Amino acid sequence: MDKDCRDGSVNIYDIARMANVSIATVSRVMNHSGKVSEKTRQKVEKIMREIDYTPNAFAQGLGLNTMHAIGILVPTIADNFMSSAIDYLEKQLASRGYNCILSCSGFELSGKKLHTKILLSKHIDALILIGSTYAGREGTPEETEYIREAAQKVPVFTINCYIEGENIYSTVSDNCAAVREVTEKLIASGHRAIAFATDSRSYSANKKLEGYVEGLAQAGIPFRQDMVFYVEKSIRYVREYLKGDSVPPFDALIATEDEIAIGALKYAADIGKKVPEDLSVVGYNNSTLSLACEPELTSIDNHMEEICSHTVDRILQSLQSPEEAELVHELTVPYAVIERSTTRF
Amino acid sequence: MDKDCRDGSVNIYDIARMANVSIATVSRVMNHSGKVSEKTRQKVEKIMREIDYTPNAFAQGLGLNTMHAIGILVPTIADNFMSSAIDYLEKQLASRGYNCILSCSGFELSGKKLHTKILLSKHIDALILIGSTYAGREGTPEETEYIREAAQKVPVFTINCYIEGENIYSTVSDNCAAVREVTEKLIASGHRAIAFATDSRSYSANKKLEGYVEGLAQAGIPFRQDMVFYVEKSIRYVREYLKGDSVPPFDALIATEDEIAIGALKYAADIGKKVPEDLSVVGYNNSTLSLACEPELTSIDNHMEEICSHTVDRILQSLQSPEEAELVHELTVPYAVIERSTTRF
DNA sequence: TTGTAAGCGTTATCAA
DNA sequence: TTGATAACGCTTACAA
Questions:
Q1: B195 shares its domain with B296
Q2: Which 3-state string (H, E, C) describes B205-225?
Q3: Regarding beta strands A99-104 and B99-104, do their DSSP bridges make them parallel or antiparallel, or are they unpaired?
Q4: Are residues A23 and A48 in the same domain?
Q5: Does B2 contact strand C, using a CB cutoff of 7 Å?
Q6: Which of A41, A61, A81 is the last residue of a domain?
Q7: Is residue B92 domain-shared with residue B118, that is, in the same domain?
Q8: How distant is the Cα of A337 from the closest Cα of chain B, in angstroms?
Q9: Per-residue model confidence as pLDDT tens digits over A141-199
Q10: Number of compact structural domains in chain B
């Protein structure tokens, strides 16, 4: 109370003085490092508790070169996929003593570069990138060069996005297999004109497309480019798009996002097609949306919680033993097809 | 290249040496502070650019006692309301040079206290609390005491949550007026048995209830406690709940969350009630869900972007001129009723 | 077991 | 206009 409260904050010298010990001893008590007599420890801890002392994180950071913070970069957080990932990551990291510094980069390369640089300047211990937008377009390695540069400073972990490079570790859902399975199921249940709708040409969207192509090939059904629809991730947009003249007839649709699938449901309702009798629809991400629509949407669940826990495990491994941690560069987590009422497998 | 790369990081001494100036001069160039000759400035800036020098944020933090970081506390981020708020906040704060440290506290008091403490220990410049869960239950000021304590260290800003106290500033949507307006509109369009469904007894939920009560009173319709349903925020739960025996007949339902409203739509479909002919439904938050369901949901939009931009403005005001910034403790932002197909006003 | 003292990389106050 | 130098609060050899 009678202290010189230049900041209202007590420092290690104050504690040392009050306990009649040196700052080194106080430091040792705080960090449970080195030998301290039980008696001294008790005394110091008591005072720290009474004063409600919190060490200055900046000073600790300066000495140790870490503030136990992980940078998380997403294009936008206003998206179910991103926010659920962040939710899992934050919870698990917090329980292990790490904080999250969040940054929304947008989808433009310049924003991605800028926000990566800002995060790095905060001396984060590791960087997490969520979403396959960070993979850039195929065949343009220069679009991911800034990530490889970042990886020279801190380990980089990507979620549902594969990036080639030293010190970059990806944890992904098997998008390809998921869509292949769904395609096969649709074919097995009698569909022949299966459409594929996506809002992106990202790494994961391409993997999904690959699964679709493989599924068709497997059954000997010819792939038709005009059955692949590139649309906006908007219920309203898709609803109208599908009514367009350029859209060939289809009896099933696989979407890379639940919103897109729901746009198809709305379209079907508009033109009097019955789901799943006349049209089967499959979404992706198993979001709340898939329960909100009518009929309820069959969707692919990418086991986000598992992806995130693997990611956190890998981060801690790489931080705890930087050298010997032999991490796989691409780790694949199983998915699940959640069947509801828009298909009849 | 031939440096002692103990961390791969260049420091101010290196720059000073390379430019043949003192560290003080380098610091002045960086901060655009003090007088520096044009020639010297050019020279130093050139070297900084070439080396791609980034000042050590911890050292800066230690000296200035800020790392330009704002703490954001939410119960969970896997919620449309929270994640859209964070999205707006992060974007606006980033554009003004502030980073966000994110923490998910859960809904338990112990978690809230713990995470508040952790955030404060990171020397954040301000703390943002999102959601009225932080207001605690009515008449229990001890549940918000930790927030008043936090407010002694940094200014605290709450979003859609009012907390009484020094250095605590709330920005809220006028939940009461919104629900009153909707209630009046339902009455005007012929409804008499209007139910109210909520998943919470939080500050904002109570404000909404208040609006409902006022709206009924205005029209001389007696308030009935058994027309207020306390439910879970789950489509499935509400869908079944409304079929229960204890639920009296109702011809309209106002929900405090879109999920709850959609549960009511599903219930109506199940028992063959037509919406809006037999039952009108109003949701809250105007989330993507309100476009996914069938029919599309009338919902109240709380103008989150505006709430967030007001909050950020107020934060910056209070940080830039801590003393003279005369901020209102409770700022109310207008809402909008978005009418879709579940009502006929 | 404890204490002294040298960093860590900035900013800021003086002198020059 | 510049340059020494003392903070800032902590960690950690190294000494005692």
A1: yes
A2: HHHHHHHHHHHHHHCCCCCCH
A3: antiparallel
A4: yes
A5: no
A6: A61
A7: yes
A8: 20
A9: 999 999 999 999 999 999 999 999 999 999 999 999 999 999 999 999 999 999 999 99
A10: 3
